[in-house]
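To close the chapter, one final illustration. This time we ask the reader to focus less on the individual chains and more on the assembly as a whole: which components sit near each other, and how the overall shape emerges from the parts.
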Amino acid sequence: MATTAMSRPEARTPFYRAVGDEAEVFRAASCQGLPVLLKGPTGCGKTRFVEAMAHELGRPLITVAGHEDMTSADLVGRFLLKGGETVWVDGPLTRAVRTGGICYLDEIVEARQDTTVVIHPLADHRRELPVDRLGTTVPAAPGFQLVISYNPGYQSVLKNIKESTRQRFVAIELGFPPPEIEREVVAREAAVAPEIANALVTLGNAIRNLEGSPLREASSTRTLILAGSLVAGGLNLRAAVRAAVVQALSDDPDIVRALGELADAVLPSS
Amino acid sequence: MATTAMSRPEARTPFYRAVGDEAEVFRAASCQGLPVLLKGPTGCGKTRFVEAMAHELGRPLITVAGHEDMTSADLVGRFLLKGGETVWVDGPLTRAVRTGGICYLDEIVEARQDTTVVIHPLADHRRELPVDRLGTTVPAAPGFQLVISYNPGYQSVLKNIKESTRQRFVAIELGFPPPEIEREVVAREAAVAPEIANALVTLGNAIRNLEGSPLREASSTRTLILAGSLVAGGLNLRAAVRAAVVQALSDDPDIVRALGELADAVLPSS
Amino acid sequence: MATTAMSRPEARTPFYRAVGDEAEVFRAASCQGLPVLLKGPTGCGKTRFVEAMAHELGRPLITVAGHEDMTSADLVGRFLLKGGETVWVDGPLTRAVRTGGICYLDEIVEARQDTTVVIHPLADHRRELPVDRLGTTVPAAPGFQLVISYNPGYQSVLKNIKESTRQRFVAIELGFPPPEIEREVVAREAAVAPEIANALVTLGNAIRNLEGSPLREASSTRTLILAGSLVAGGLNLRAAVRAAVVQALSDDPDIVRALGELADAVLPSS
Amino acid sequence: MATTAMSRPEARTPFYRAVGDEAEVFRAASCQGLPVLLKGPTGCGKTRFVEAMAHELGRPLITVAGHEDMTSADLVGRFLLKGGETVWVDGPLTRAVRTGGICYLDEIVEARQDTTVVIHPLADHRRELPVDRLGTTVPAAPGFQLVISYNPGYQSVLKNIKESTRQRFVAIELGFPPPEIEREVVAREAAVAPEIANALVTLGNAIRNLEGSPLREASSTRTLILAGSLVAGGLNLRAAVRAAVVQALSDDPDIVRALGELADAVLPSS
Amino acid sequence: MATTAMSRPEARTPFYRAVGDEAEVFRAASCQGLPVLLKGPTGCGKTRFVEAMAHELGRPLITVAGHEDMTSADLVGRFLLKGGETVWVDGPLTRAVRTGGICYLDEIVEARQDTTVVIHPLADHRRELPVDRLGTTVPAAPGFQLVISYNPGYQSVLKNIKESTRQRFVAIELGFPPPEIEREVVAREAAVAPEIANALVTLGNAIRNLEGSPLREASSTRTLILAGSLVAGGLNLRAAVRAAVVQALSDDPDIVRALGELADAVLPSS
Amino acid sequence: MATTAMSRPEARTPFYRAVGDEAEVFRAASCQGLPVLLKGPTGCGKTRFVEAMAHELGRPLITVAGHEDMTSADLVGRFLLKGGETVWVDGPLTRAVRTGGICYLDEIVEARQDTTVVIHPLADHRRELPVDRLGTTVPAAPGFQLVISYNPGYQSVLKNIKESTRQRFVAIELGFPPPEIEREVVAREAAVAPEIANALVTLGNAIRNLEGSPLREASSTRTLILAGSLVAGGLNLRAAVRAAVVQALSDDPDIVRALGELADAVLPSS
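The assembled structure is written out below.
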């Protein structure tokens, strides 16, 4: 079962602050109809970036989250029972292909391999989607663009993007934003005062810069926003940081204690 | 097949004694509509805590126990045969989403990965559940909240909560309560006299504090209550402890004997 | 497919000779509605013990043998074809829940994990069985009790009873009975003279007391009864012991020879 | 899919020459309704022994060959399509249970574990077969007897007969017959002259007595009969031995050559 | 899905040149109705040998190629949809059994184990095929013969022919033919001049005799014929050898270069 | 689900520049009806080569991309639901067989093994496709030719082309074209000026010639064309190379930095 969300171009501009030339590369790829591969850690803003580009380019966006049980039928569609009859229901990829939207396949590497192969004819000059169950081929409407993402930080011997897939994509690497931008993002998304946002971002960078860190992932912008939201919900800053940042990063008592002491040292004594 | 239980807010207040600031964190998360992750050992009271919070917040509670064969269809729903016709039956998660209840997914890490992905759109600003089999998306009713739990003590290379899931949740760590609270809990739940409860809690803490313990899990509050219940059912204290605590903790003859000697030393000679 | 047997309380009292306080513990658990976990080696009388307790307590008994392909549907029920129509057929667990009987799940650890989870709501204060395929929940009738068993002697890395399951159960450990009781059991079950029973039990204990024994399991009471039955069927004692005890315990020629010599030394020269 | 063969008691007595007390043990077990486990190498005559006993006891014999894909449905039965309708077709075990025949499950250890469990209630005092798909239980007709076999020479970590299964059976070990009996068997079965049979049996025993033999299995009585049949079909003895014995025992060129030289030395120069 | 081909006895005699006494052994086995096991490397002529014997004996030949997904249903048959109705379609083995043909199961070791078991009753004195899905047993028509093959050169821990299967078969080992015969075969099959065939066979034997060869398989007669066919199609000899022999044997640049140099040294400078 | 594309011979000649004698070998194989195996790295032009040969030979081309879930039904066809009825739909291989086209199975090694077996009767003198589900055999129309490809650079213990498959095919090895040809290809395909193409090819060869390269695959012609397309889409050369070449080749920060420095050194300062 695929987890999908389709959105028409929003009236409100999605909030995204570019850090490098990611928007220029995306525009050039879009102009040439080339598929894009986004690389970056959890919670650094990949989804927001795609939302912002879809808005700027005026195209519908369809998001699909990959997982290890996902097959090509989850993308392309299947016959479903509706009122006693079997009717064909387009999958999210097929809907994007027909409507000329942007189809964003998040962490597609997790999916079963037949899904990566189904996107090949969409990712080269053919720009068409074979729908074997219907015995037809759907040409991509103008404006259709494929975007996929993965997190290079996950170590996996079993799940690797195939070279023959990867070399079809223009690659853009995203990371956490620099402090001045991250402060603005946290303050805005969590609806907290600038000094709270400042404290959270200072802590986030202190954790990211820990030498010889035993953490699998660093504290993402997303966890900083979560901590800010708890503050906005009435919790004090230290309890919010403990719940949204410290306890989220590790289960090891020693690491949790060390992160707690770091938070005590960095956060204002309020 | 999912194991689910749905309960309307009870007239009687569920018995739960808070140990730290877990209730404040839960309230702030609930106020902001943020999902919660509970961490803690078997039998420490995670379920009771959620029941108490659901009661305080006046919301229905739906509990689902995860297991390694559980798929997203167990959460979302499926077509079933009823009287010769196929009818759609909402899964427990969908019911919680429609009614604005709290959905508590116990040990969700055990489930197949497609279940963790299906909860992502419910665990961020989208707050919606895609039901692919019906071709629709169900927006979460006001009051819907997602709570998941897992036991960090289980060592598992294969089953880990994904970072991209984990960083969406506010995390609360629960442990065994301090002696004065645990005595009250055991006496009340097992309906035994205070001195019996006192003896059981003293034993429980003696076992938990064993140095270099070879036990996978310590004696939980739940096993102490079980021992108390046997006493309330007419068994003498030592036989009750042997059946509900000692034999439950290990199959190794040496460890069973050592635990028995510890129980002899700690329990009153009655 | 589940292997089940349901029996109404028998007119004749099943033959079981208690060795320790197992009956008292079972009665107290039964009085409090607590589930019971039986631990012990193959053929030591676990099933007989449950039969005797069911008889004493006046409740129907349903026995289910676990195996590695058993799923929760084997316990709960499924839709079957009968005369061209699909009809729901309760599984053995559901039948026990409805009738207030004792459901004995033998070696449930072998079954797939979803079966252990399906019994959780029956093994705590909820006492109810969710039947997802029917979209209903069946409350346990008064008198329903869950009994499970496993053999701690089997070494298995893959199959372990989960702590969160185990700590819900009152545990009773059973072993082989002492000689005077075992003699009575063998004589009665195999319908042989006391001196034959005596010889068999003497041999059984000689094998169990072998130092540094390479056998995976010792000679159980069951194998001694089997040998006695062969004698009752006309075979001489030594041939009966060779067929029912020696050859049943090992395929290794050296061990078979050693066990044969031990039998020659212990058994009367007839 | 199960491979089965059912035979009414034959008019002609099947040819079997007893070597030890295997017939007495079988008769005593049969008299008491006890199940039998046959142990022995490939091609030593296990099937013939069962055929002979079935004939002597005047009971129908049903043979089922186990394999790693065999499930309990292959033994018990299933619904099949016949002329557009689904009808229940008894499996071979169910047929034997209904007719009071001997059911011989050859190498049942290979089958999936649910098959060994399905035979438990038939292998103890219950003597009944639960047929879950029909929702019924079939009591064993008088005369029904279960016989299983396996080859202890196969080393398998994965496939072992469970102790709780094994200790339900009376065990009989069979081996290759002594030379004087094996000569008679080969001469009769292959329809060759005594001196040919003598040469083949001499060779067979020379191979079996090879010290430090690298062969997984020795040359069985079956392969000696096969070689005899080729001679009866017109091939010379040495070519027959090469095709039916030497090439059947190994693919290793060195071993094949050594066995060939052994054959040259042992066989008459004809 | 099984890959099968059925051929009536051809008018034209298939071209096969016997190397040893393989034809005599096959005739004796055929005369006695005994099954045959062919051993030998890829492309040495196993299929041709069976075709030639089937022609000589005047029987239809059905060939089935084994693979790791092949099940007994692929051999025996299944119900298929035809014009909206389900009709039974005999598998290739069943067709051979009914028509009294030779059924050649190529590399049957690759198939799932239930296929090897299904052939047991056809490979001994019973000579019958149980068709469980139809609930019937098909007796083998006179003339039916089972032939299986495998390649001992493939090292496989997982896939081994079971001893209880193997010892039912008369075994014939085939290898590459001696040069004078192989030259004739290549010239005839590829329709090339004798000197081309001579050059190819010389090269083939030079490769087969490489000491310490790192090749998994040597250059088979089949690859020499393929090279000859390219020459007959207009390619020069060296390019043909490079494409059909050198590049077919290895992907390792060093080995490819070494084989190329060997070819340059052995082949006429044309 | 198979990913297929069928194309009638194009009016426009597909652009392909031969590097060695690959076209001659292909023509000879085609003339003789022999199957072809293409070996070479990702993005070196295997598909283009087949397109060009199909055009030159005037035959329709059907392309199928292999993946690890692909089964023989994906190639041969299956019954599908259309308007409530089940109709047979030919798979891509069957369509090619009927129409006498070229069927190009890209990376067929990835597919399940039953797919490689299904092509055997098409890859030798039989030239026919058994369609078991229909119970028929389809003879290959004149002109039918099988072409398969794989990438020897992928190290895989699990997935190897079987020798018995491989030795049926004429093998052609393709590599990256020499600079003067690659420049022409890049300029033409990406529609960039010769100096841009020259810079890209120079960089590509510098990367390919890195000593002790840690890259799994080198920069293919395809990635150079991709970079060129970004330039044609308005991006500057260095950003285009970073997105299409550097970030596509590695996720390792050190390698990405080293490749970036190499690009800075090789590319014109623009």
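DSSP finds eleven helices and ten strands in chain E. Residues 194-208 of chain E form the longest helix (15 residues). With these observations in hand, you are ready for the problems at the end of the chapter.
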